[in-house]
Structures are given as C-alpha cells and as structure tokens.
Write a structure and sequence with these properties.
heterodimer; A: six-stranded antiparallel sheet; B: mainly alpha; 20 helices; about 70% helix
Amino acid sequence: MKIATYVIFVGLMLGLALSPDQGCANAPLPDKQWEAPVMPGGTLVKTEDTAVYIDYEMPYEKVLAWYKQVLKDYKDGKYRDWTDQMYIEDQGGAKWHSIGIFKGGGDKTRVKIVKDNLTWVFSTLLIRFAGVFVVLCILWILLNISGAAMKKFFPSEEVKAKAH
Amino acid sequence: MSGNEIWDLFIGTLQTTGFPTMTWQHPVMWAVGLFFLYMAIVKDFEPLLLLPIGFGIFLVNFPNTPLFGYSDTGHPELLQFFYKYGIIWEVIPCLIFLGLGAMTDFEPLIANPKMLLIGAGAQLGVFVTFTGTILAGFTIKEAASVGIIGGADGPTTIYLTAKLAPHLLSANTLAAYSYMSMVPIIQAPIMRFMTNDKERLIKMKVLRKVSRTEKILFPLVCGGIIALLVPAVMPLMGMLMFGNLMRVTGVVKRLADTAANQMMDIVTIFLGLSVGASMQAHVFLTYKPMLVFGLGLLDFVVCTAGGILTVKVLNLFVKEKINPLIGNSGVSALPMSPRLSQVIGQQYDKKNYLLMHAMAACLAGSIGSPAAAGMLLSMFE
C-alpha cells in the first residue's frame, strides 16, 4: 500500500513537472486571440489567463511585416519600438491590450499577446497621478530655492530700509 | 405653363429648403441650443462661452445649412473652417492660454508655493474618472479626454479632447464649462461635508510680497520644468508662460493688454461658435455624449474632494495649518472656486480672509491640470 501511494505520488509529481506551464505546447493556433490577429505557422508555447506566447521559426522582420500588414487599417494600434521588442498597443476598445514581437532571436521570434486588463489601467493611472505630484513638487522645490535666493541676493526695499 | 409644371416647380423649390430632410433630432438640438442661450442670457451662467456655443448649436442643426460641412469644391464651410483650423489644429486653446497668462498674476502662488500640492491633489478625479469611464465602455482615448473635465480647465479639456477624441469635443467642452459655472452648487456641499468647524476657522498668514524679479523668473522656471517633465503639454503651458512673461516684465504692455483683452475676446467668439457647431444632432444624440455629463460631474466632485483631502494630509506635516476650505480651489475654476472659499470661510468667521490663499491653490490647479493632461497625452505618444 505504501509503495502504491509512493508510486502514485511520484507519478503525479513527474506529470506536473513535465507538463507545460499552464498547458498547451504544440496546441493548434487560433486565427485570433482576444480578437488580436495570430500569425499562422507558429507554435503555441504557453497560455496564461491574460497572455499567450507563440514561437515562430522565422526572423523578427518577417513576423513584424505580417502584423503590420494585417493591422494596417487598424488606427488604434500604437507601435512602440523598444530595445527588446516591437510593442503594439491597442488604444481603442479591442479585447487585446498588446502584441509584443520580440527581437534578437535570429531565425526564431516570440510573439506575446496580452488580453485587455484593468491592472494595466490602474497601474498606469497611479503612476501618472503620482507623476503630477512629482512635477509640481519639483516646481515647489525650485520656487522655494529661487524665492530664498531672491531674498538673499535682492533684498526688498523694506529689508534694505531696516538694515539702514 | 400647365398646372403640373407649376407643381413640379413648387416641389423643386421645396427640395432646396430644409423641410424635406428635417428629422426629429433637429428640434431636439434647437431645444439644447436654446437651453444654453437661456442659461447665458437669463441666468448669466458663463455667458461669454455659453452664448456663442448655444447659438452655434442652434445654427448648425438646421438641415442643408452650408455651415459645418465641406463645399463641392472641397473647402471647409464657415464654421467648419473655424473648427478645423482653430480647434482640430489646436490653435484656439493655446491662444486662450496665452491670454490667460497675460491676465494672471501668479503672485499668491509664488509667495506660497506649497499650494502647488493642492493643485496636484485636485487632479485625483481626473484619474478616478478615467477608470470609471473605461468601465462604462469608452475607449482609453475617450476616457482620458473625459477624465480631464474634472480639472475644470476649459482650454485644457478642449486641447486634450481635440487630440484624443474629437467626436466628444462638444460634450466635453460643454460639461467642463457647465460645471465651472455651477461651482457654488457642486462644491459648497462637498466643502461643508468634508470639513469640521475647527478646520473652517483656521486662519492663514498674510502672504509675503513678491519681487518683480521673482515674478519674471516664475514663467521661466515653471515653463522649463514642464517642458522637461511633460513636454506633451508645452503648446499650452508655453503660451501660458509667455503671456505671463509679457505681463510681469511690463516692457510690452501693449502686447500684454492685447493678448488679455482683444485677442482673448476674438478667440472666445471663434471657440464658442466652433464648439457649438460641432454639436450636430447625429454626433450629440448618442449615448456617449450623454454619459459624459454624468461622468464629468463625478469627476468634478472627486477633484474637489481630492483638493480638500490634500490640504488635510498637508496639515499633518506643516506647522502653519492650511484652511481646508481652500482645497476646492485646487481645480482651476478661476475665479469661482476661490470666491466660494472666501464666502464659505466668512460664513464661519467674518475676519477670515481666504481669497488670496484660495487663488494660490487655483493657480496651482491651472498648472496641475495641464500637467495631468500631459501625463495622459504621454500615454498615447
């Protein structure tokens, strides 16, 4: 009995260890993921609740050209050319938030499609609200400094009169 | 000429009038236009803007009027011309900021720069409403343009909306200016609700005198900081600071006077008419513009609360306490909000003069609101 339990436990652990992360390596590719176009010819390597990862045996430029062609009429897609990826962000009302096409893989390219999510909205807003404080805080500090400098180097008529 | 020919002639003439293409939406929009005219003429609510806006709405909502479209040869018709080159090209909001700069004395803010934090805190509603607007089904760009309404800064609202969601321009502009004119109705209950008697009686020190050199430095320092940190909004802030520089140096008095008076008046006429003209029935009578008014109100309320909360938080750290009744002025509704702070403050203590402190908070709001707009704009650049 003990051996059987042991075998089942080890088997379960092995199964878990060998299974792909949240399942679906080599699963068939859908035409669209959260309404975002999916380039055919790739391998779905990882699926999460809010993102999918697809690998292609082709250079970055080819994958990018395909996405640019497919999205050419989509006006709300914003392209951001980052160091490691071309980040296509949806600024409209689509169900996807971004398509990241990763660079630097030679003849291999990874594409990450992210579902539209409120986490992104909340975090970007929080950062930007804090940003307003930062801008005005810097202005506050500089006004204090310039005010103090003014008082020191250009004393008002009142102060001059008192000094005399 | 036979009877049939006369009848055909009559029908042909009738076809050139507005009657055959009239829909139920047209009279609805006349009513909207007349409502704004009523508010401006009878109630004296923001007449400088509501009068041209109201008349613009009234004018363009007659079928077949060659006012807001394009001619057969492709050139814009009269009001479309104002709208295209004034608003879509973002010229008018920037010119208004130039005029505002020439009209504004930043002395209270320079004398008490910690008020800048109130201007930042009062932008809370902008970001809260952004989220609410997205949940209501708007796109991110639309949400950003609706969010800025709470800053109660008309030109900034126009600037941001023209860039991000031009189809909401009329609704957003109207909401922004309507809530500005309703400051006493909206803000007073929030101010009373969020403060206690002890806080309302806080007296603030008389502000120090500010030298001419400091006043001249202000537009340079402020303009430089904004240009470095939120460059997206420099067309507005650059004009505001230039207008102010003309004013404080005193060496170009004629230019400053023109910017503050004649130019401002001319631009206001074109702004009002263009915004009103953009409120055509097929654009305005949809659910989104209707929702904008509700969301804008929420925005304004949260911004007011944000300003008051910021004062309360500041009071935990500063030696010289700030009266939270000036927190409402963190939105840039000048001069209505500071006036309200003064009126409510004096209801509790006749010898409490909050006006200049509230002015400082309001001026901070007039910088905070474009800064918030810049933060939102940078999301899309």
